[in-house]
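Input record (one chain):
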Amino acid sequence: MNTIECIKTRRSIRKFLPDPIPQKTIEMLIGVAAWAPSWKNTQTTRYIALTGNEKNAIAEIALGGNNRSITENAPLLIALCSEKHISGCNPDGSYRDRFGTHWESFDSGIACQTLCLAAHDLGIGTVIMGIYDPQKAHEYLKLPESIQVSALIAAGIPAENPDPRPRKDVSELLTFFHE
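The corresponding structure, as predicted from the sequence alone:
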């Protein structure tokens, strides 16, 4: 699959087959996600793979809304995390500009999308879940204060093939600036 086709055909998958994803496949996905660009190549994104009881426990503790049921039928949940106070920071941890944590979030977002596109290319569906309690997820995962949970991603072989949602026309999204 070429890059543009991969981008245009990737969907958020909320129903999965129960088939487990082999550890080698998960390692390959993270290896590909590691190629995502980051501020000054700091590569601060980290990944925690949860399956079975651990996946269900964090879902029960930290997920809200429909995300809990989505996670129950997904064989894999990835906690996408990032090291704090490195991306966009001076050596002493102070932020270089007024954007603060903007670069940490930006770098995690790029890594997240890279992971999801690589998964799609391998026939693995994903959904990035934003309705979760980051503090409860952080505590469950026993992370140090220097690491934050940026997103939770359910993954598995898709049991659905949703139609694409409408996209805005380029004329609505693009402005050419001329003085």
